[in-house]
Design brief:
The complex is a heterodimer of chains A (299) and B (492).
Chain A (H helix, E strand, L loop, with lengths): L1 H15 L8 E2 L3 H25 L4 H9 L3 H33 L9 H14 L14 H25 L1 H7 L4 H31 L4 H4 L1 E2 L1 H7 L1 H4 L10 H31 L26
Antiparallel strand pairs in A: 1-2
Helix pairs in contact in A: 1-4, 2-3, 2-4, 2-8, 4-12, 6-8
Chain B lengths: L6 H6 L12 H4 L3 H4 L11 H9 L14 H4 L10 H5 L7 H4 L3 H6 L8 H13 L19 H10 L3 E3 L5 E3 L4 H6 L17 H4 L3 H4 L11 H7 L9 H9 L1 H7 L8 H5 L12 H8 L3 H9 L1 H9 L7 H5 L10 H15 L2 H5 L6 H8 L1 H12 L10 H5 L16 H9 L25 H46 L1
Antiparallel strand pairs in B: 1-2
Classes of the chains: A mainly alpha (299), B mainly alpha (492).
Chain lengths: 299, 492
C-alpha cells in the first residue's frame, strides 16, 4: 500500500526532522509533496478556468475563455480538474485517518487558543510592541489558517459544484433557489481562495522566505528556527509507536479506508454520469414558412 | 374616270357659288398645256395619281397645313399616303369640320387593318374603348410613338383586356393612372426634395422589350413574367437590390425557389406606397406569403399592440428580421445573436418605462448560466450551435405573450413544462433555479442575495486581516534590516 508506506516514512521522517542535516530540517515526505503538487495543478487549473467564468463579459475573461477554446471547453477542463481535486481530497482524508487512528500522530494541525495568542504576539512584535516573536510548534497559526481554509474551501466548492453540476437531482430534494445560491457561493468562495493564495500563501512561503520544503522536503535552518521554534525545542514530538500495535491498527483501518476510497470513486463516477441536465441539441421547430394568404386588399 | 362633272355637286361643295367665294375650274386644274382644249392626254396612270397631281394645287389657296396629321404630310412621295382629295373630296369638297366630324371614323376610313397582329389587336380594343374627346391624335401626334410616357399611359389606361399566358393565367393590360399617380413614384413630395414623377420608360426602359409594337410575351406564367422584370428596380435602387440578393429571399431565388419574394412581391408595382406607413403595412406585406406566422404574430403581445392600438414601439417583422438583407432566422448565428436583438428594445430604459417593463431582463439573463454562455458564443463563435436557452426558447417566437398571460410559456403555472423542453427530467422545484429576471434582493431570491453579501463582507474582512499581518511584517523586516545596518556601522 503506497499510502501506508508514504505515511510510515513520513512518521519516521518527523523523528529525524529535529536533526539538522546538510540540506536543512526534513519536513515533508515525497507523498506529501506529490499531493501538494496535485493540489497546485488542480487549483491553478480550476482558478484559470473558473475565474473568467465569473467575469465572462470582461475583456480578459473573454480573452482567457477564447484562449482555452471557448466556454464549453473551459467548462470541460474545469470539470476535469474538479474531479482531480475531489479524488485528491478523498486521498488526503484517508491519509489523515491513517495518521490519526493508526499512527496516533499528535494532532499538531488542530487550532488552539495558543494560536490566537501567537497571532496577537506576532502582530505586537511586528509593530514593535513585543520584545520577542511568538515561538510556534510544527504548524504556525498562519499555516493552520491556510490549511483549514483549504479544507473548508474545498468542501464548499465540492458541495456547491455538485449543485451546479447536478441541478435536477438537487432540486428534487432542495428548493430551486439553492442552485443560483450555490453559484453565488461557488464564485464568492473561489475569489476568496484565489485572493488568499495570491496574498497569504505567496507572501509567507515565497516572499518572506523562499520556502523550498514543499519541493525539496527540507526546510532551511533559519526558517525552522524563526517559525517553528517550539518544534525545534522538542514540543509535540512523539516517541515511535510500537510496530506491532501499528500493524494491528492497520488491519482494522484498512477495510474502512478501502470502503471509503471505493465510495469516493463511486461518488465521483455518480457525480459525473448520473444526471443529464439538458438535452444536447435544442430541437428545431418545423414550421411551414411559405403559406400564401388568400388574396386580400392591401391597405 | 367619268368625264362629266355634276355641277350641282360642285355648287353644293364648299367651293360652290353659294359660299360667295369665286373658285374657278382653272384655280384647281392649273397648267395651261395640260388643260387647254383639246386636252393633252392624261399623264397619270391611275385615278389616284391624277387626284394627287391635282391636289398639288390645293396649297395655292390653303398654305397652312398645321392642323393636318404630320404623318400624312411628311410622307415620302411614292408612298401610299393620302392626298388632299383623298380625305376632302374633289368637286364635292366638304368643309374641314365636316370631314373630321367623326375623327376616329375619319382615321378608320383608311386605317382599318394593321399588318402586325398585336398592333391590330391593340387598335381594335383602343378604338372600342375611346371615349368623348379621345381620338387617334392622342398618340399619333407627330412625335415618335416610342419612347414616350404619354403614349404608354394613353394606351394602357384605355386598354382593359387581358393577355393569356401559356399557363392559362392572364395579365391585365390596364394601368390605373390614379394608382400610379398616388404611388411613391407618382406625384410625390418628400421633405428633402421635389420629386419628379417617374415616367413609364424610367422603369420599362428596355427598348427591345418595351418598344412598340411590344414583342410577344415569352414567360410561361405570371411568376416567370415577374421574374423577367425583377431587375428593373436595380437601376435606381442598386444598393438595396444588392442587399436583397444577400437576404433570404435573394438566396432562395438563387437556389431556384422562385416563390421567394422579389421587389414587387413586397412593394407592389404601379401602386408602390411607403412600405412602413402605417407600420401595420409591414406585417400585412409579409403576411402575403407568411400567413400562418402572421396569424401567430397577430395574437402575440407585439402584434396585438400593433394592430389594436397602433403602438409605435412594438416590433414589426422587419425590426427583428431586417429588411432587404433579411438574415436566415434558422441559423445558429441568428439564435446566438437573438438575445441582443431583444435587448435592443427590452434594455431600452426610456422605451420600457412607458410600459412598466423591467430593463433588468437582459442583464439578469446574461448573469445567469444560459445568458453567460450564449453571450460568449455570440462574441467568440457565433456560428456554433449551443443548447443554452435564448429568449425565444422560453418566451416563444412569433407567439410571444406577456409573462402575465395565462397562456404564456413563462407564467409560473407553465414554467415547468417550458423548462422540460430542454430539461426533460426536471421536477417541480427546478424552475426556481432560474431567478426569473429578478436581481437578487431580500424579496426575490433572498438566499442568493444573502450569499452574495456574505462574500462581499467576508472577502474584504479576510484579506484585510491578511494585509494587516503582511503589512506589519514588511514594516518589521524593514526596521530590523535598518537597525542591523546601523549596528554594523557602529561596530565598524
Amino acid at each position: 500500500m503506497a499510502t501506508a508506506n508514504a505515511a510510515g516514512r513520513e512518521m519516521s521522517n518527523q523523528q529525524v526532522a529535529l536533526t539538522e542535516r546538510p540540506r536543512g530540517y526534513w519536513r515533508f515526505s515525497r507523498a506529501e509533496r506529490i499531493e501538494h503538487f496535485v493540489l497546485i495543478v488542480s487549483f491553478t487549473v480550476l482558478s484559470l478556468t473558473g475565474i473568467p467564468q465569473k467575469w465572462p463579459d470582461s475583456w480578459w475573461g473573454d480573452l482567457m475563455i477564447r484562449g482555452m477554446g471557448g466556454i464549453e471547453m473551459t467548462r470541460l477542463i474545469h470539470h476535469t480538474a474538479a474531479v482531480v481535486l475531489i479524488v485528491a481530497s478523498g486521498y488526503h482524508f484517508i491519509v489523515v485517518g491513517y495518521k490519526v487512528f493508526v499512527k496516533r500522530t499528535p494532532l499538531t494541525m488542530l487550532p488552539s487558543f495558543q494560536d490566537a495568542k501567537d497571532a496577537i504576539q506576532t502582530l505586537a512584535y511586528n509593530i514593535g510592541r513585543a520584545v520577542s516573536p511568538a515561538k510556534m510548534g510544527r504548524y504556525t497559526f498562519g499555516e493552520k489558517v491556510e490549511y483549514w481554509a483549504v479544507i473548508w474551501g474545498t468542501v464548499i466548492m465540492i458541495l456547491t459544484g455538485f449543485v451546479l453540476w447536478n441541478p435536477i437531482l438537487v432540486t428534487r430534494f432542495l428548493p430551486g433557489e439553492f442552485v443560483p445560491a450555490a453559484k453565488a457561493a461557488h464564485g464568492g468562495e473561489a475569489l476568496l481562495a484565489v485572493l488568499s493564495i495570491i496574498t497569504w500563501h505567496v507572501y509567507n512561503v515565497h516572499v518572506k522566505h523562499f520556502n523550498r520544503s514543499m519541493f525539496t522536503g527540507y526546510l532551511d535552518p533559519h526558517v525552522m528556527e524563526e517559525e517553528h521554534g517550539l518544534e525545534l525545542a522538542g514540543e509535540g514530538v512523539m516517541t515511535p509507536p510500537d510496530p506491532e500495535k501499528v500493524r494491528r491498527r492497520t488491519v482494522i483501518f484498512a477495510p474502512f479506508a478501502a470502503v471509503f476510497a471505493i465510495a469516493i470513486l463511486i461518488g465521483v463516477y455518480f457525480f459525473l454520469t448520473y444526471e443529464e441536465t439538458a438535452i444536447t441539441t435544442v430541437p428545431r421547430q418545423e414550421i411551414e414558412v411559405y403559406v400564401p394568404a388568400e388574396p386580400t386588399e392591401t391597405p | 374616270m367619268p368625264l362629266g362633272v355634276d355641277a350641282a355637286v360642285l355648287d353644293a361643295s364648299v367651293h360652290g357659288d353659294h359660299t360667295g367665294v369665286d373658285v374657278y375650274c382653272t384655280d384647281c386644274h392649273r397648267g395651261r398645256e395640260r388643260y387647254q382644249y383639246p386636252h393633252q392626254p392624261n399623264p397619270a396612270d391611275t385615278l389616284a395619281a391624277f387626284a394627287a397631281d391635282v391636289s398639288q394645287n390645293c396649297r395655292q389657296c390653303h398654305p397652312s397645313l398645321e392642323s393636318h396629321n404630320p404623318g400624312h404630310l411628311g410622307a415620302e412621295p411614292g408612298t401610299p399616303v393620302p392626298t388632299c382629295a383623298d380625305c376632302h373630296g374633289g368637286h364635292d369638297v366638304v368643309p374641314a369640320g365636316e370631314t373630321y366630324a367623326d375623327p376616329i371614323g375619319f382615321c378608320l376610313s383608311c386605317h382599318q387593318d394593321f399588318e402586325h397582329p398585336q398592333v391590330d389587336r391593340a387598335h381594335a380594343e383602343l378604338v372600342q374603348n375611346m371615349g368623348a374627346g379621345q381620338d387617334c391624335l392622342m398618340c399619333h401626334n407627330g412625335e415618335p410613338v416610342y419612347p414616350a410616357d404619354a403614349q404608354c399611359r394613353t394606351c394602357h389606361t384605355l386598354l382593359t383586356g387581358d393577355r393569356e399566358l401559356p399557363s392559362g393565367e392572364t395579365i391585365s393590360l390596364h394601368v390605373d393612372l390614379q394608382e400610379l399617380n398616388d404611388s411613391v413614384h407618382g406625384v410625390y413630395q418628400t421633405e428633402a426634395h421635389d420629386y419628379n414623377p417617374l415616367l413609364c420608360t424610367d422603369c420599362h426602359a428596355d427598348v427591345q422589350r418595351y418598344g412598340f409594337p411590344h414583342p410577344e410575351l415569352t414567360a410561361e406564367d405570371m411568376r416567370g413574367l415577374r421574374m423577367e422584370m425583377d431587375d428593373i428596380c436595380q437601376s435606381c435602387h442598386e444598393e438595396i437590390f444588392q442587399k436583397q440578393l444577400d437576404g433570404v429571399h435573394g438566396r432562395a431565388q438563387a437556389e431556384g425557389i422562385d416563390v421567394a419574394a422579389t421587389c414587387v412581391d413586397c412593394h407592389g408595382n404601379h401602386n408602390i406606397q411607403v412600405p412602413d406607413e402605417p407600420r401595420e403595412r409591414v406585417s400585412q406585406t409579409c403576411a402575403q406569403c407568411h400567413s400562418t406566422i402572421n396569424a401567430q404574430y397577430e395574437q402575440s403581445v407585439h402584434g396585438a399592440a400593433l394592430l389594436g392600438e397602433h403602438n409605435p414601439d412594438v416590433p414589426v417583422c422587419t425590426d427583428c428580421h431586417g429588411v432587404h438583407d433579411i438574415e436566415n432566422p434558422t441559423t445558429a448565428e441568428f439564435r446566438v445573436n437573438s438575445p441582443t436583438l431583444c435587448a435592443g428594445c427590452h434594455a431600452d430604459e426610456e422605451m420600457m418605462s412607458k410600459y412598466g417593463i423591467s430593463t433588468d431582463v437582459f442583464d439578469t439573463y446574461v448573469a445567469d448560466f444560459h445568458g453567460t454562455t450564449v453571450e460568449l458564443f455570440e462574441k467568440q463563435s457565433p456560428d456554433h450551435e449551443t443548447n443554452k436557452a435564448v429568449c425565444y426558447d422560453c418566451h416563444g417566437v412569433h407567439n410571444i405573450l406577456p409573462a402575465t398571460d395565462e397562456n404564456s410559456q413563462v407564467i409560473r403555472e407553465n414554467l415547468l413544462t417550458t423548462c422540460r423542453q430542454c430539461h426533460p427530467d426536471a421536477d417541480a422545484n427546478f424552475p426556481d433555479a432560474w431567478t426569473s429576471h429578478f436581481k437578487p434582493s431580500l424579496e426575490h431570491n433572498p438566499i442568493v442575495f444573502l450569499v452574495d453579501w456574505f462574500y462581499r463582507l467576508l472577502i474584504p474582512a479576510v484579506l484585510g486581516g491578511f494585509a494587516l499581518f503582511i503589512g506589519t511584517d514588511v514594516y518589521r523586516t524593514a526596521r530590523t534590516r535598518r537597525s542591523k545596518k546601523e549596528n554594523d556601522h557602529g561596530h565598524s
